[in-house]
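Observation: inputs received (chain + alpha-L-arabinofuranose).
Thought: call the complex predictor directly.
Action: predict_structure
Action Input:
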Amino acid sequence: MHVDTSKSGAKIDRHLFGQFAEHLGKGIYEGVWVGPDSRIPNTRGIRNDVVAALRAIKVPNVRWPGGCFADEYHWRKGIGPANARPVTLNPNWGGVTEPNTFGTHEFLDFAQQIGAEAYLSINLGSGTPAEAADWLEYLTTDQPTALAKERAANGHAAPYKIAFLGIGNENWDCGGNMSPEYYLSQLRVYSRFVRNFNPAQQTTDRMLKIAVGPGGGEPRFAEWTETIMKSWKGRQWSWDHMDGLSLHNYTVVRFPASYKSVGFGEKEYAEILQATLEMDRLVKQHGAIMDKYDPEKKVALAVDEWGAWYAQLPDTQPGFLAQQNSIRDALIVALNINIFAKHADRVRMANIAQMVNVLQAMALTDGPKMVLTPTYHAFRMYVPFQEATFVPVTFDAGRYTHGSISLPRVDAIGARDASGTLWLSFTNLDPNAPAEIATTIAGLTPRTASGETLTAPAVDSVNTFEAPNTVVPKPATVSLAGNRLSLTLAPKSVTVIAVRP
Ligand code: AHR
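Observation:
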């Protein structure tokens, strides 16, 4: 392997490490919100253990309230005194009731408690431009309007900062089954009328608007990206701005998801890793279409839903998307973040689905108990890559083969942070054999090298409430001789090393 720190690439935007929290299963209720009267330690109803864990991984932004839920969400039902809020339905996710006790103010409190920016998805599917425009006025104006007064009466006199606005969600599917042309006409209307009035966001810190983009690898999505980007190129002044186009892509062999999240063998391990590498093809495919209309890369590709989607755990409520999380998921994190980092000039935002108790989560909860997943630990190990500058790494990846599947055996990225430290991440996909790595480093004189590695006894090792430390990072053994760094990557492992000049 060779790293030349004098050859730098794009900045790895911290927003690549964003999260997604939808009103789905136990993601919000129980996972984040327990209510102020709960015996589970909480701050204004938001559980303290989850907040402390999320603060430690420096979550840059949280996307809320959905997902499919967003296109049926009516924000007015989630403001005002909790006991006066209506109970509604959540038809997308198990048909359960939605108490609306976690609404706009609670979400923004949660985002503030974990130190994240707010990424709101507005209801374009079943709402109206007026409803969405009112939501943004309610949130952001400092003028004495009726909506601002209502916000103040609900406990927040100052305007909120809304960093990102998603204009719909999967409107080609659960968001209204729209054609690209129909969605485009809606996008233009909503972009025009849904305004952020926060005085502090007018010239700097502008709210970034993310349009709905493609989802997965179906051929119809090339046309979707073409339609939106072509129109963006020819836009008039009244289409204010579009800062990002979303891409949704889950790691799934096929829907409905049937692969198990625990209790699987090497075949399923290899098939899922092969499926996750599809992300690279999609980023390149849609990036190339965007390049045709936007060679300066003004519009970001925002992968605002990604992660592994497995069969629901047995004995969990249908529609709740509850799954376990193994060392395989930690490798999925590393491989996907590496793909985003390699395309960091175009991919400037990503949101893993979902934050707590749903799909590829950071944490699982059961009443007062919480356990951190291998996915969480991989996110924590990658924190130094936030805002670091990509450094190209060249290497002989080798091959890992299982049956008819053949994958690169090793993956790696490098980045340099503001202090000059070089960060290297290595993933060994081979679950059976260690990988010996010898790296020569040019462009800096290394003084020290140290780091952490995450591996596990079996391909499906997980953390449980009873055994929470089966898959946790341990110090890595690394040796440095002059500019040559050597280490052995354990089978099925993720390792992050800091090389300090
Ligand atoms: O994350 C679960 C669902 O997956 C989201 O609600 C939807 O946007 C996607 O299809």
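Thought: report the result.
Final Answer: Residues 22, 66-68, 169-170, 305, 353-354, 359 surround alpha-L-arabinofuranose (CB under 6 Å). The chain has a mean pLDDT of 97.
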